[in-house]
Every structure is written in structure tokens, then in C-alpha cells.
Amino acid sequence: MPLGVAVVGTGKMGADHVRRIDTAISGARVVAVADIEVERARKLAADLDGCTAHADAAAALAAPGVDAVLIASPGPAHEEALLRALALGLPVLCEKPLTPDAASAYRIVEAERRLGRRRIQVGFMRRFDAEYQQLKAALDAGGLGRPLMLHQRHRNTATPGHFTERMMITDSAAHEMDVTRWLTGHEIAAVQVVKPAPLPTSMNGVPDPQLVILETTGGAVADVELYRNAGFGDQVQCEAVCEHGTARIGDGHAMVVQAAGRWGGAIPQDYLTRFRAAYDREVQAWVDATLAGRVVGPSSWDGYAAAAACEAGVTAQATGVRTVVELADDEPF
Amino acid sequence: MPLGVAVVGTGKMGADHVRRIDTAISGARVVAVADIEVERARKLAADLDGCTAHADAAAALAAPGVDAVLIASPGPAHEEALLRALALGLPVLCEKPLTPDAASAYRIVEAERRLGRRRIQVGFMRRFDAEYQQLKAALDAGGLGRPLMLHQRHRNTATPGHFTERMMITDSAAHEMDVTRWLTGHEIAAVQVVKPAPLPTSMNGVPDPQLVILETTGGAVADVELYRNAGFGDQVQCEAVCEHGTARIGDGHAMVVQAAGRWGGAIPQDYLTRFRAAYDREVQAWVDATLAGRVVGPSSWDGYAAAAACEAGVTAQATGVRTVVELADDEPF
Amino acid sequence: MPLGVAVVGTGKMGADHVRRIDTAISGARVVAVADIEVERARKLAADLDGCTAHADAAAALAAPGVDAVLIASPGPAHEEALLRALALGLPVLCEKPLTPDAASAYRIVEAERRLGRRRIQVGFMRRFDAEYQQLKAALDAGGLGRPLMLHQRHRNTATPGHFTERMMITDSAAHEMDVTRWLTGHEIAAVQVVKPAPLPTSMNGVPDPQLVILETTGGAVADVELYRNAGFGDQVQCEAVCEHGTARIGDGHAMVVQAAGRWGGAIPQDYLTRFRAAYDREVQAWVDATLAGRVVGPSSWDGYAAAAACEAGVTAQATGVRTVVELADDEPF
Amino acid sequence: MPLGVAVVGTGKMGADHVRRIDTAISGARVVAVADIEVERARKLAADLDGCTAHADAAAALAAPGVDAVLIASPGPAHEEALLRALALGLPVLCEKPLTPDAASAYRIVEAERRLGRRRIQVGFMRRFDAEYQQLKAALDAGGLGRPLMLHQRHRNTATPGHFTERMMITDSAAHEMDVTRWLTGHEIAAVQVVKPAPLPTSMNGVPDPQLVILETTGGAVADVELYRNAGFGDQVQCEAVCEHGTARIGDGHAMVVQAAGRWGGAIPQDYLTRFRAAYDREVQAWVDATLAGRVVGPSSWDGYAAAAACEAGVTAQATGVRTVVELADDEPF
């Protein structure tokens, strides 16, 4: 039986999660959606088999078939939905921030503690990014030694006009707060912010970029460039500088390690590793097309033409001479 | 209703497809598996809800709930299974090769033609690889002009001892036969093979590597290095040399284009693009853990600690001075 | 007539400059060397035609044939040598630091001002590095807009035991002080230093690495990672983050620019550019060997063998068939 | 005493060598130049102290002060100049090709053999390119095993209209003929050429690009893409595919090796290595400026400003707080 999920909040992020559960991942289905703009929820539910639409989180959580909750509403609405989910004992995936401030977040910690067992996963999704996981694994493996510094870049192509300066911290740097804690295993001990001047005219005068410097309880130092209007693209990078080398991710390819006089990375050892995502996309595309009554992808003619070329190839291989391919000329469809 | 799939052949490739349909993709379930080693099929079916095991393809295709067929048995068994699927009008995803030789492959083309509509997708999965799709899109966009040459590398870490020389063509080069046809839009017109000497001692004396040179009906030239015992890893690369520049994939990062005096690539413009796979993995991990009665990933304490660090960050941002983070010290669980 | 140079200081750096003037560059010769360890100076002078050795800078500057002075003695000895050179009106190339502190450096500025014309070039050699020059040119070209941040890494493989903490600034960061001034065109306005803890046991307890944060009079922010015992190698990197993109150097290849949705770099447009250094090394190797009475490099046989292969190539090109190379088998020497 | 060089041929290549000897390398001077367009030779000689101009090679070789000869005239003129130099016993650096065909090249080999000692270095300058030398060293070190294949790319931005098809081989591929011989230590045994079709309209119908396939006497296979009108730039690449890994150069950075599951390269271990070229350029720039009566590069003010910033830095380092830089405001010059 697939997991029945209630999705609370159907803005950009929530709608993307609904699509994800419906068409990209395995083992779950969306059975209820909630949004204070209930029309938006209704439109989304209309495309989903057996999904109900609601005007608030409480109603969605009480809908039939709900086994778990995904919270993607604005941050200020999180506390109420979280407490309701905890009261019902439902597992929750809550988009970050958990709540907008430390006091309310601590109330959630306490409510879950009273429940006596973990129910909440917070949506710091970088911990699930393949490159961040490579970096975490490299640090945990120990060969590079203790991480001493983290250099982080967090750049966005552009940012909407309603963005405020404090959101540079609560919306952007929040990710690096978590990454720094996760990679070092320390808590954040102190923060400072340095800003270039004069102020840019973009973003209603919000200073951009900004440099955030974090010190951890274990003595590591992390710097974070926040650049909300970088213009050229969306880019997230992290370099860990350790006792015996560095490891860097986010350059558009897999992790690069510097140690013992060399820089470089790993080469996949198996074609199922190299092409895992391609296989997933291939079979998903086949399933999607079949459900839609279509056939896509390479055809039987493609299979035949490759077989004919391979026959010529085998002859060429055995004889050492150029061999012409014999091919019928009546491709169907 | 999910698509009911019969998987024919439960060796390495078939078992991987069963796992893929069961745990990685959306909209399908495995309802029947077949293998001449029926014990192997039974073991696999035992872990799947409502899945039956069979000793041959015909039985599996006739099993209740079968809407479509995935063929992953050895190549010589494909023809019979394909014809049976066509007879039943079932959509098929058939692992490459379609069949082991051109004559039998052409029989499949004709059988499908008689049916009057496409039923078969052949498993040339490189067409679903993100990098190959970038390359195809770049060529189709036209800015680089006509492709004149393709330089391809097809390297495997190691190859089992039963591998024969002709499999260098039928098993390895078959992929590049299809890629060359797909990227150029031409058929393969002629093939030749050049081999280094003296023979290596590996692989029972099969000469390795080999250089295959393809000429297409449209006048393009493609070279393919086949290296089955490269030792260092599994690597598939392709560079298209065109009238106005080159595009190259397979170096472990996204496509690199050379044109108009510059080399480089594209930067993602949106965080949902940059982190799509991370979001998919995050939600899949949450669903999997929840179905297993567990909670994983960042905890409410992680959410709280980030909120506390952000509060200090907002103060540091406003005051310009180093700000200490206030954090409770009673992390639960 | 070549320029007659007096080299003051014959330690590692000074001896390298003597070798450079003698064997690598054009238009100058070393006519005098000075070192308080006069034996060291004498040993160096013995290998140089017409070069005299001296125990102090004043004597070397007064030696016959001296047209210019290169100062490579320890920093505290610079002021005296500089003032003497200014008194004699001699052009000076002075290794950094100009002098060890601001007050003495300002005395040099004043002495040169009194002279009424520039005589001194300070050895901030990064301004002559090809990659730094690319970066400077990119910033000056204006397309990237104003530089807002500089991220700099200054890493050394290892550092001698006598290294003190303040040398992290005066010896290492001094380079980035100059680079930051040069690239932005601003003065440094303020400095702070953040250090990871606990202290490492290396380098007599000098905290390493350290993060230096510079603010410029024009409002740019620069961070500098100083890492004297990085262990893995010697590495100097700089990324300029600008209004419309970034430019980065020091990754072991030419500058990489990010702007307008793309990352990448320039491709040389001319083989004399691509291979300029190779031509220089070729002709220098020929001159050196000839002066030593030897002949090195590709031989006439190499020229003949290439000609024979080219003849076969021209035939193969005209006929389209594999053509065997005819080659004599009596290679001489 | 510097080596007195006669330069025969003062076209693009010859003039560049004259400039090189005059201003870039150490230990030699041009004492004679020859060109059948004697006006061109005269113009060049006029800028050089004590250099005579001649209408033919013989006259130049007989000029006073000639110790060695650099031949940069068109290929058909090489034989006569080479034989004359051998008759005089003069060391020669001869631009490639040695001579235009195998028979005449072999006459040179025999003439030098009769002389009983090597006099000739042929201008295959790739052997002096830092990246090619890294590749050669990696192959000679043995860890990668025997080279089995070489993949080479030889691309030019554009090619003059008088270029003929056979020059694809004699002018372009000649380099790869030598590189293949040098890297493998084998002779070229056979050649074939494969060309895309239809013919391009560029270069008077010369087919471009072309794929050249070389087989060596030791059993290695080398492919060479020749692309004279690549349009995007000048690019020379070589990948050696060996028994235990690959090594690749020409991507705009140092050699990348793939072996044992990893890809990567070496990091310089010493700042004199990292910045050797910068030091050379710095001192050369200082010498050139001084000889021209000028002073360039960082000034004493730059030295002072860096010293002032360092003083603030040392205070910041000791106190942990942001420290303002004290700087005079009377920069001279």
C-alpha cells in the first residue's frame, strides 16, 4: 500500500512536491492538499486520483487515508501544522525553516520530546544532494583530517523584489548554517556579517552580496558568500579545508579532492553506477508513455539498424578491411 | 492504477529493473517475473506484493494483471518473447540488442509493421542520459552546424573471462552504433576496425582495446575506442566535431562546448533545477523511512539550531559586530 | 650592451634571481653580488664571467659596471640598501617587503619623492603572473562590472620551524594586500583575522590556517585563507565576484569566467600563442647545448622518418587506402 | 660570449625567432639574417646591433661571428642551407620539415653521418612544450604501462587560401608523426586517411577535417583529427591510452591522468615552481624598462601601502578585532 500523504501549502515548492510524489518517486501518493487559497489546492487535487482539497492544515491532516504530512506552507504557518501533526502522531517532512525563530522552534523540539519519539524530518535537502553526500563521506572517512575551514558560495540568479535583508540570513544562510553543523558535527558559536559598499540599487537597496563568517563550538571557521542577484546563475559550492587536504563540491561535477600533492576525483567503476539515472529515466519514460497509450524512444528499426551495423563490424573486425553495411530501406512508422 | 509489468529475465540487468520499478520510479509495479532458472525468479517475486514467478516468457506474459513487458533475458531469447508480446499487443521495453543478428531483428520490424503500430522500445538507454540529451539538443539547435566527426570512448573497468572478440562489437560498440545514428540522423554506411598489437594476455587473448571507425550515409566519420579492460573505471565519452565548434560529454560533468573562441558550459538558472535530484532523494528517503516505521534526516533539533544561528546572524547583520549564538543544551533523542 | 646588475642578498631568492639573469632572460648580466655571508657571494660569483663578490650592499653598488640593483636580502636590510641606491640614482628591483614596517617604508617613499622620479620597482611578482594579468584585464575591461568581493587562497606545502605568527601577515598576506589593492584600485581600509581552534601542534603552535578579512576604501570585501602547512601543495587562487559575474584564477589552468548563464574560458587563437613558451624553451635548449658543445633534441633521422611517414600519408590521403611507410633501417648515431 | 646566430629566412616564423633570440632568451645574439627578399632581411637587421643582412643562406653562414645557424626558410630551401652548414661544421636548428620529401631528408641524414657527429636539431618544438614533456615523462615512468593508442586533435582557427590538401599531411600531421614516434619509441608503419563528406566550401574545396590513422612498428594505433578551419581556436591535444590508465594533455591545463579509479593531476609543491614564469617576466620587464630609461611595476608607494595594511593585520591578528589601516594620503608620482 502506498503511503498516503497530505501536502500543506501548494505554492511553488508545495506544488513541486505534489508533482514529485505523483510522477517521480515510488511508494507514496498525495491524498489531501491544503492551502489558505483553497482554489489553488482544488485545482491541484483535481488532477490527482482520490485527493481531497482543504482550506487549512488541520482539515487536511484529518482527511481519510492520511499517513504522513509534508509541510510546504510559509514559515509562520509551520508551528500550528507541526503541533497538529505531532498531536496526531503523524510523521512529518517540514520544509525549512522549521519555524521562523528560535523560541518557536524550541517549542517544537519540546513537543516532540514529550511525544517520546522522532516524528519530524526538516527539509534541509542538501544533505540528500549527491555531491554534499560525497563531501560528508570524505570528511567522515577521516583521511583528510579535521575540517578547519569551510568556504561556501550561495548564489542565485535573481531574487524577487519583496525580499528583505534579514531573509539573506533566514532564507539563504539557513542552508549553510545547517550544512556547517552537519559537516563539522559542531554547533554554530558565533556569527558576523561583512558587506561591500556602497549599496547596490537592486533589491530595494538590500546590500548584496554579503559575507557571513561562522565560528563553530569545535573551533572551525566557515565563510559564506551570499549573492541573491548574482545574475549569471544558481550556484552552491562548498570547499572543506582540512588538516591534510581539501575537498570541494559544486563546480558542476563530482567532488574534487586535493591531498598528497595531487588534485582529482573518482571515476565510476560500474556502468550501472555511471548510468543509473539514465536507466531510471528510460524506464520512467517508458511507463509514462505506456500509461498515456504511446510508444517513444528507440524503435525496433533502431534495433535492426544497430544489428546490421554490428554484423558489418564483426566482419570488419575479423578481416581488417572496410566493410559496407547492408540495410533494408523500408523503415516503417 | 499503476502499470502491471512482466519482467522477463532476472539476471543482473533484469533484477536491477525489478528493483527500479519497485522502489525508484512512479506509476508501475512488477506483477510477474520469468526466468529459465525459475528459482531465481521465485526468490525475486517473494519480496514483491502480488507478483507471480514463471519459467518462461509466455507464461509470464499471460499472467493476470500484465499490461506491459520488460525483456531483460539474454539476446538469443529476445525474438520469441518479442513475437509473443506483439501477438498479445503488449507494449515492450526490450534490452539491447533487439535480437543478436540483423535477419532476426528485421523479422521483428516486419512483425510490428504487420501489427500496424509501434509496440517496442529498445533499451538504448544513452538516449535518456542527461549528458547525451544535452549533446543531442546542442546539435539539433543548429548553432554548431553539421556534425562532421564523433570521437567516442567506451571503457569498462574489467570484463568477464567468457567475453569473446565479436562481443566487442555486438555488446559494446552496439551502443555507439545507435548513438552515432541518433546524433547524426544518418545510417551507418561502412565500418572498419584497427587493433593495437601484440595481443594482450587479458581476456583469453581478445585484442583490447580496439578502434572502430564508422562512416555514415550522410558523410560523417565516427571513431570509437573500445576498451573492455581499461582497469581504471567505467567511462563513456563523446565529442561531436561540427562545422562551427565542438561539444563534448562524459568527463564527469555537464557538456562542454567550444565555439567562437571560447570553451565552457551552462550554469543552472534555478535552484529547483540545480537540486531536483536532491529533492527527489529527500522525499523518497522520507517515504521509505516512514513506510519502514523510522524517521531519518535532519531533526527538529537541527531545525531549532539553525533558527538560533539565524537569529544571531540577523543581529550580526544589523549591528556589524560578532554575535554569539544562544542555544539550549538539551538536545533530545 | 647588457644591463649590469648588482644582486644584494644571495639566499634562496637571490641565488634564483642570479640564475635567472644569467640563463633565462635577455639583456642583463650580473656584475656584482653581495652577502653578509661573503663566502656564499664568492661561490656564486665564481661561476659568472666578470662578476665581483662583496660583503655589503654599499660595496656592490659601487662596483664597476653596475647599472641597476636587485635587492633580495632579508627585509630589515632593505632600507639601507634602498637609500644607497637612491643616493646613487640607480634603478632598483626590491624583493617584497619594501621594508618591514610602514614608517620605514614611508621614509623610502619620501626619499624617492625628493629624488623627483621613480627609481624603485617592488617585487610583487603576482602582477606579472599570466593568470593574474588575465584577471586584471578582465576586471579593467568592465564587462563584469565593479568587483564586490575577492576570495583568495594562499597555501604552502610546508613552512620552516622558525616561522612566527606575525609572518602569516607580513610574509604571506602581504601578497594579497597588494593584489587586493591592484585589482580593485582601492586602498585597504580595515583588517580582521579569524582563526580556527584549537591550535595545531605544527609550526611551534602558530595557529594555521587563518582567515583574513579586508575591507577596501572603495567598499569591496576580500577574504584570504592563509594556510602555511597545507601539506598537499603550493596553491594561490583568486576569485573576483563582480556585479555581473565572477572570474577565477589559480586552478591550474587559465582564467574561468562566469557570466550570463555560462562558465568558461578563452581558447588561444594562434599557434604562436599556444606554443610560445615551447618555442622559447626549444631555442634556449639549442643555444645552451650548442654553447656546451652538444646537440640535443630531434635529430635529422627524426626529420627523415617524419618525411617518410608524411609521404605515405599523402598517398593514403589521395587513394583512401592503408599505405605502408617505406623507411631505411640504418639510423646513425 | 654569447652564441652568434645566423637566421636564414625572415618570414613570420624567422622573424619571431629573431625577436626571441634578441629579447626573450639568454646566451645568444643574431649576427646575420638572410632572405631572398633581402629588403625584409635588411629591415630586421637594422634594429639589431652588429647584425648583417644577406640575400642567401651561404652568404649569411659565411658572415663574421656566425657560430650556429637557425633555418626558417621555406622547406624546399632547407636542403641547400643544411648541406652548407654541415660543410662548415656549424650546429643547426632547422624548422620542420627537415626537407619536403623522404629522399632529400635521407641525403641530409647521410651527409651528417659522413661528418661523423650530430650537428642538426629539427624544429619539432612540441618536444619542448611543458605539457608534452609531462606526458612523455609519465609514459617513461612506466606506471601506466605500454601506450596502446594515442588520440590526437590538431585544430587551427583558420587557414590561408593557398593551403593544399597534401599540406594537411606535410604541414599539419607532420607534428603528430613526430609526436607519435617520440611518445611510443616506434616508427610509423602504416597510414590511412578517412574524410567526412560532402566537401566543405572552405579552403578551395580541400576536405576538412580529416581523420588520420597511424599504426606503429610496435603495434600502437594513433588517430589524429586534423581540422584546419575549426573556427573556434588553435588547439592541440593528445591522450595516451595505456595498459593501466590514460594521460591527457592540451585542455588548457596541466596533464590529467586516469588510473586506479581516479582522475587528476599534480599540484606544484613549491612557489618557485608555481610562479617561475612570473618571476622571469617580472625581472625581464624590469630589465627592459630600465634599458629603456623607464620604471614600471609596483612602486615604493605600493610597498608602503602593503606595509601599512600588514601592520594593521598584525594588530588584528593579535587582538581578534577589526583594525583600521593608517595610511598617509600623499602618494607621489
TrEMBL record, chains A, B, C, D:
GO MF terms listed in the record are:
inositol 2-dehydrogenase (NAD+) activity; nucleotide binding
User: What are the entry keywords?
Assistant: NAD, Oxidoreductase
Q: Which reaction does it catalyse?
A: myo-inositol + NAD(+) = scyllo-inosose + NADH + H(+)
Residues spanning the signal sequence: none
Class of the enzyme per the UniProt entry, highest EC level? oxidoreductase
GO biological process terms, alphabetically, are:
inositol catabolic process
Which Gene3D superfamilies did the record assign? Dihydrodipicolinate Reductase, domain 2, NAD(P)-binding Rossmann-like Domain
Self-association and partners: Homotetramer.
What is the purpose of this protein?
Involved in the oxidation of myo-inositol (MI) to 2-keto-myo-inositol (2KMI or 2-inosose).
Q: Which family does it belong to?
A: Belongs to the Gfo/Idh/MocA family.
User: What is the designated name of this protein?
Assistant: Inositol 2-dehydrogenase
